[in-house]
Design a protein that fits this description.
- The longest helix has 27 residues.
- The protein is an all-alpha fold and 174 residues long.
- The chain is built from 7 helices and no strands.
């Protein structure tokens, strides 16, 4: 008797059509984190662009490290030493949290070229963060074999999460 592979919730055809990564949780999370950083930084008044870029990137790195540590600590088997291969695998998997801070940071960096002041810079970076959050959520659903309707639902749900940050920023008058 041969054993069959464990069910994945997908048919063989879906496995072939959607190879590769379908878990974009780190990118979605990192995008929401970047949006929150921009909104919070904008709520304290004018800020130098270099400080916001640094804050975005450092926050991404710190949250990435926290996610890696939490995963490794949470999965550790009592009495078993840490597996360095597993640590590297988790670190690579969670790296998208850091990557999600890059586009909003680039938006801040190019904002003077667009003639934007501090408020315009913050809104641009926030818009980029929310747009990539929606994109990563929808892409993850599509890559996982979701229907167009479900992928759109994922996008809308993430847009609503992003709009909570936007509304909070607007309510604070920034």
């Amino acid at each position: 008797m041969t054993s069959s592979p464990a069910p994945t919730g997908r048919s063989a055809g879906q496995e072939e059509r959607h190879p590769g990564r379908t878990d974009y949780a780190g990118a979605v999370y990192g995008s929401l984190l970047a949006a929150s950083v921009v909104a919070a930084a904008g709520s304290v008044g004018a800020f130098p662009r270099l400080q916001l870029i640094t804050l975005l990137l450092v926050t991404g790195v710190v949250f990435w490290a926290a996610h890696v540590y939490a995963h490794i600590a949470g999965e550790r088997v009592i009495g078993k030493p840490l597996d360095h291969r597993e640590m590297r695998r988790v670190a690579r998997h969670e790296w998208s949290i850091v990557e999600a801070a890059v586009l909003p940071a680039v938006a801040v960096a190019v904002s003077p070229l667009l003639g934007l002041g501090h408020a315009g810079t913050a809104w641009l970076a926030l818009s980029v963060a929310v747009a990539q959050q929606v994109t990563w959520a929808a892409l993850g659903a599509i890559r996982a074999g979701a229907s167009r309707r479900m992928a759109a639902g994922e996008g809308v749900a993430n847009l609503l999460l992003g709009l909570v940050i936007v509304a909070t920023k607007a309510a604070l008058g920034h």
